[in-house]
Amino acid sequence: MSAFALVSGALFRAPELKWSKAGKSYVLATVKVTADNNVDFWTIMGFSETVQTEPLRLGEGDKLSAQGSFKVEPYTARDGQTRINRTLFADHILALRQPPRARKLRAAPAGPPPASAGADFDDGLPEQLGAGR
C-alpha cells in the first residue's frame, strides 16, 4: 500500500546534504508544521538532484511545501513517552517564497575622483530661480 502526502511548513533548521553508505547524496530537512495549536515535526528526505537543490537554497525559518510518499512510525522518547516519527520521501519540493537573489555590487571607478567631485555643490540654481522674477 502506498500513501502520499503534501506537507507545508517552516524549516526548523537549515537543510543538510548528506551521503549514504553507497555514496549517493540526499538532502535532509526538518519541517515544523503548525495546525490547530498543534506542532508536528516532519523529516523530509530528497534523493534526486532536482529535489535536493531547492531546500539547499533555503535557510532556517523559510517556508516550503513538499510532496511524496511518507512513513509514520512510533518511537519511545527519552522521557519514556511514545511519540510518532514522520518521514516524507519527497518527489517535489517548492519554496513558498523565493529567497532574494544575490545582487552584484558595482565596481568603484579606478583612479582619483574628478576635480569637480568635492566642489561646494554650487550649481547656480538659486541665481536662475531669482532671475525669472
List keywords for this structure.
single chain; 133 residues; mainly beta; OB fold (Dihydrolipoamide Acetyltransferase, E2P); five-stranded mixed β-barrel; 11% helix; elongated
Describe what you observe in this structure:
The chain has 133 residues and is mainly beta. The protein has a domain at 4-95: Nucleic acid-binding proteins (OB fold (Dihydrolipoamide Acetyltransferase, E2P)). Helices cover 11% and strands 45% of the residues. The protein has helices at residues 49-56, 125-131; strands spanning 4-11, 16-19, 25-35, 38-46, 63-76, 82-95. It has a 5-stranded mixed barrel with strand order 1-3-4-6-5. The chain starts with a strand and ends with a helix.
Structural class given helices, strands, pairing? Answer: mainly beta
User: In what range is the share of β-strand residues?
Assistant: over 45%
The overall pLDDT, averaged over residues, is: 83
**In whole angstroms, how far apart are the ends?**
88 Å
**Helical percentage:** 10-25%
Report the CATH architecture of the domain at 4-95. Beta Barrel
Quote the CATH topology of the domain at 4-95: OB fold (Dihydrolipoamide Acetyltransferase, E2P)
Largest sheet: 5 strands, mixed, barrel
So how many helices?
2
CATH level-4 homologous superfamily of the domain at 4-95: Nucleic acid-binding proteins
String of helices and strands:
EEEEHEEH
Using the CA coordinates, give the radius of gyration. Answer: 27 Å
Question: Strand order across the biggest sheet?
Answer: 1-3-4-6-5
**Highest-level CATH class of the domain at 4-95:** Mainly Beta
What would you call the shape? elongated
Query: Which spans have pLDDT < 50 for at least 5 consecutive residues?
Result: none
